[in-house]
Amino acid sequence: MEERIVSRKNPLLQQVRKLLSSRSARQKEGLFAADGTKLLEEAIRYFPGLQTVILTDGVEVESMPEHVRVVRVPGDVMASISPMEAPQGALFVCKIPEKAEFTPKPGMLILDGIQDPGNVGTIIRTADALDVPVVLLEGCADPYNWKTVRASMGAVFRTPTVMSDWASVHKACKEAHIPVGVTALSDRAVDIRSASVHEMALVIGSEGRGVRPEILEAADRELIIPMNPHCESLNAAIAAAIVMWQIRAGQ
Q1: pLDDT tens digits for 137-160?
Q2: In the prediction, which pLDDT does 207 show?
Q3: Three-state secondary structure along the chain?
Q4: pLDDT tens digits, residue range 79-101?
């Protein structure tokens, strides 16, 4: 049975605002919020952690699970809580999944310090499409930030998000005899097309800082994506897509 809320000060709506704006609130409550009818359809189809759905009057959603709390709000109330300039009329709250265990695999992607939620979400989306395992190291954007979820186009609902720290990842790769490759602009870097990247764990760093010095020092290979000499770098999500395509090409 649907509920109706008309007050912007309702505790549920205040909670959603916090989940949308604060990583610490998400971590404390073990919940995250997302926006959009298409994403809601993906969550209904793939994600058992869907808990609460807030809909604007007139927005209908099919196949809503019985356990999900459904709330109706007027358009002005939705506009007051939605992070979008033009709300689609659907906000929803999900439980953050239990931490997925990191398992080193050849042909996996490691993200280091990529702080832009749009880039992280796009990388997760591409990795889901190409079936490439991804792990997020410390310093990366929250995969449950609404911007990350939106950029992933629902991939966070279909594929478990793995987060770890460099020390643990490096140790696990070493024990599994998986060489670590890093993308870097250096004289030592070799063309990514000439390397067996499908046998490695590949690290992509942020656009501003690149890969951290301690990771560069520990890496087995440095790799470069060939491009025009006058170009200094690529967008992190684009670089990751090229790397993942090369991984798949070698498999």
Answers
A1: 999 999 999 999 999 999 999 998
A2: 75
A3: CCEECCCCCCHHHHHHHHHHHCHHHHHHHCEEEEECHHHHHHHHHHCCCEEEEEEECCCCCCCCCCCCEEEEECHHHHHHHCCCCCCCCEEEEEECCCCCCCCCCCCEEEEECCCCHHHHHHHHHHHHHHCCCEEECCCCCCCCCHHHHHHCCCHHHHCCCEECCHHHHHHHHHHCCCCEEEECCCCCCEEHHHCCHHHCEEEEEECCCECCHHHHHHCCEEEECCCCCCCCCCCHHHHHHHHHHHHHHHC
A4: 999 999 889 999 999 999 998 88
Ranges 7-16, 115-124, 182-191, 217-226: which has the least confidence? 182-191
Residue 187 has pLDDT above 80, yes or no: no
Residue 150 neighbours by CB under 8 Å, 6+ apart: 34, 35, 36, 39, 121
Please say whether the beta carbons of 196 and 250 come within 8 A. Answer: yes
Pairing of strands 134-136, 162-163: parallel
pLDDT-based confidence at 184, cuts 50/70/90?
confident
Q: Give Cα 218 distance to the centre of its chain.
A: 25
Interacting residues of 167 by C-beta distance below 8 A, sequence separation 6+? none
